[in-house]
Every structure is written in C-alpha cells, then in structure tokens.
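In practice, a research group might receive sequence data for several interacting partners and want a quick structural hypothesis before committing to experiments. The following worked case mirrors that situation: the sequences arrive first, and a predicted assembly follows.
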Amino acid sequence: MIEIEQLTKKYGELVAIRDLSFKVEEGRIWGLLGPNAAGKTTTMRILTGYLPATAGRAFVAGYDVFEQTDQVKKSIGYLPENVPLYTEMTVESYLGFVAELKKVPRHRKKAAVDRAIEIAGLQSVRKRLIKNISRGYKQRTGIAQALIHNPKVIILDEPTIGLDPAQIKEIRDLIKSLKGEHTVMLSTHILAEVKEVCDGVVIINEGRLMASGSLEELARSFSENDGVYLKLDRVDREVLGVFQQLPGLKSASVEGSEIKLEWPWGQDLRTRVLKLCLEKNLEIKEMRSLAMNIEELYLRIVSGGMEQ
Amino acid sequence: MKAVWSIAKKELMTYFTSPIAYTVIAIFVLLSGFFYYSLVWWFNTQAMQMARNPYYFQQININQMVFAPLFHNLSIVLLLMLPLVSMRLFSEEKKLGTEELLFTSPVSVTQIIMGKYLASLIVLFTMLFLSAVPTFFAFVYGNPELAPYLLGYLGLFLLGAAFLGLGVFWSALTENQIVSAVLTFGTLLLFWVISWAAYSVRGFWHDVLNYLSFFEHFDGMTKGVLDTTDLVYYLSFAFFGLFLTHSVIQFRRWR
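A structural hypothesis for the assembly, expressed as tokens:
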C-alpha cells in the first residue's frame, strides 16, 4: 500500500533522509519511529505530495507519488504535526470544506461529514467554533479531517502529542479502530504507543533506515531465545532443578532474585511453566517476557546502528 | 472551477466571521459617505453662486465636480484599506499550519490562488457597491451622465483588483499579517508616486515611469475616458501579482 524506494531528500546541503526504502502492507498500522530530527516528518510530507524528493521513488495505493500526484492526494488522508484547523470555523463547516477540497461528490458530502464526526466522536461539538473546543477535540477534528474522503491510506504525524493520558487512550483506540479498512502510518517517539497500536515499525535515525519489520521480527533479530523472567516466593537449587526438567527448555538460571528460563523461538512454554508452578506449589509473584521490550530494542537500534 | 469556488466560499466565511471585513467595509462606506456629502454640499453652494451668471452656469457639471473628486478620494482610501483585506490570505494559512492541508489536497496551486483572490474581489465589490448607494440619489434628484459614473466605479474596481493582486503576493511571502499589510501598502504607495520620478528624467524612462504609475491610468477613467492601455495596465498588474504568488509558492516547495 505504501512503498518507498531509495528516497533521498536534501534541503540545500542538509540531508534530511538518505536512501530510505520500506514497505507497508495493506490494512496494517505501521509506526514510523525515530528521535527528533530523524526525518519522520519529511518522509511523511513527501508521501503526501507536500514536498518533492531529491531522488528516489514512492508509491501510495499503487500510484506514483511524483507522477500521479493528484491520484495519490485523493487516496491519502493526512494529519500534519500542527493540526491544520481554521479556528474561526465550526467543526461541521470545517469538515464540509475539507470534503470539498478532497473532491467528495456534492451529494455525498453531508454523509461524509456525518460519518467522520461519528467515527471521531465529535457529535457533541459539531456546531461549535474550533477555537473554543478542547485540545483533545481539536486532535479528533484533525483525525476526522484525514478520514473525510474515506482514503485508503491515512498518515498521522504525531497524533497523540500534547494530550493528557485519557485523551491519548481515546485517540489510540480511535486509530486502532481504523485498522483493516485503512492502511495507517503514524509517526511517534512514544514507544508504548507503537507497542499498543502498531503492527510493525520502521525505525529511522538521521535520515537512514535502521530497522523495519513487525515487533516480533525485530525482537527475534536481537536475541537468540524467547523466554521469561520468573519471580517466585523462593529461589533455590531445588526450585531451579524443578524447571530444568521441563521438556523443550534450553536453559534455566538464577539472575538476582529471579529465575531466567529460555527456550527457542517458535514455541511457547509459558503455560507449562505455570502448570509446573501450581503442581509444585510455587507462588508466582511476577512473570515477564525475556524478549527485549520496545524501549530496549529502540535504544539498541538507534544507538547501535544495527542494520536489519 | 468547483475547487476555486469552494476555496472562495471558505475565505468569504472567514472574512465575515472575523471582524476584518465588517470593519473595513463599514469604515470605507462611512468615509465615502462623508466625501460624497461634502462634495455635494460644495457643489450646491457653487451652483447657487454660478446661477447668477448664465455663462458659468453652462459650465457646471456634476460628474466633474462631484464624482471625479469622489473617485480620487476613494482610490486613496482603497490604497489604505485593501492591504488589510489581502494581508491574511496566505499569511494566515501559514500561521495556522493549514497550508499543509491545502497543498496535500487534490487541488492545484492556481485554483487555491484564484479562490482566495476571488473572495477578496467579492469583498472589494461589496465595499464599492455599498459605498455607491448614496450616489444613486444623484440620479433621482439630478441628471449626471451615466457612462463616466459607471466608468469611474469600474476604474475603482480595477484599481482595487490590481492592489489585491499585489497584496496576495506579499501575503504568500510572510506568515505575519502586519508585515504583509505593510509591504503591500509600501509597494502600492511607491507605484502611486512613481510618476514624480518621471519629472526628473526625459524620453524613454519618462514614459516608462509614467506608465507604471497608478495615478496616470486612473485619471482618464474618472473623466469618462476609456483607454484600453489603462485596462491592460490594471489587468496585467493583477495578473503579474498572482503569477508571482504562484512562483513563490512553487519555489518554496521545490527548492
């Protein structure tokens, strides 16, 4: 649905992105991750036809971004980082204007506005002036604007920035509800967001691709084994011996106050570990995945410069 | 064309939900009413005095004595006020970040510019039309010539259209509305007085400088003389402003 090949963008001498290539499958939610000034916004602006690229190719919904720009613009809904709102308009008239801009046929305009208002949950503020609604509603209006022409691809630049935790959750749920029908690409530097919302990520740093793939693929590429850390009411040789007999287990060891169990990728021994604990009357205080969490992964990738 | 009208409609909505359009139109109508009233009053006193002398009485002409000076006064008021109409057209989009919405929509830059320009022309038309209402009474109680009267208003409209074309250009260059208005005002004033410089040179440059001045082209129209070079001047001035706007917007994105 979204495909970028060797894309490069220079602002004069400054290279914003360099030889960037990645692909996003249809119906997925993909995160574009990277530190500030990594080139996330530039990449999105190129995809939406706002900026030209210096070199390379990009395709959205099967159309060439640089050759069939109008087709691409019709198939994309875009929420820029600064939510583009006309503060003097009401939510309803603003969405109506965007529908006209996006070439929604006149007889379907009202239905399109109603649909966007419903999806984004804006019913209670539809007649209010945008300057008088809260930050969270403004963000929702921004998302409604990106949805208005029912585009195949939705690009969201930092959709949850500046919101309070409750609002963040609402926006994330909203984004998750778009999955399947739309292909979504969102940029963020909040890692929890990626974990919660996205199927996969593209990680870029200083304009270069550092890694891309689903979260599991990335986790696999960084550690040999899957496994868990287990915190029990007691840790001793006897307990360790119990686990060592578990079939399929690669290793069991004690790390601090926790037991580390490892097994090869592809099988999941978690249930069996649980059953074993119950059988042996061991009380589980905590169990967590051995796989690197997204924070660790991100730091490894961005600082280590490991290429996928 | 539909896209142009969509944008124009939105611009008009913004003009009339904010106080800008109301203020500009109200002040313009007020000033124009004041000018008209004083000119008519002056005309009346002159007419009374001249009525004693049949020779002078033949010379008296309401078009020359009321409307020509009225158009001149209004042209200066337009110069002061139209930069305030054009200043927000692109500056505000930049400031609000809505520029990104416009330029990622399936509409062309030309359509965007034309839509905005059309909206400002409609504001100008409203200003002129409302300010003209009191002058209708001159036709009820007197017998001015219609052609020079209409030509004068056409001249004002074309003059305003040229001002707005330049204003759109400056507003595309800055996100600050005040800066945009000041630059427009300064440039307009320069084009107004450029004929002064014409006095100090001779030959070719004298003609060029004279041709460039707003004044020289407006004079004829207030006297009821329709010259195609004047029409061409205003239209090409407006066109040039819009063309530069287009170039500036494209250049910024493609550099």
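Before designing any experiment, note the following. The CA atoms of residues 96 and 113 of chain A lie 6 Å apart. The longest strand of chain A covers residues 14-24.
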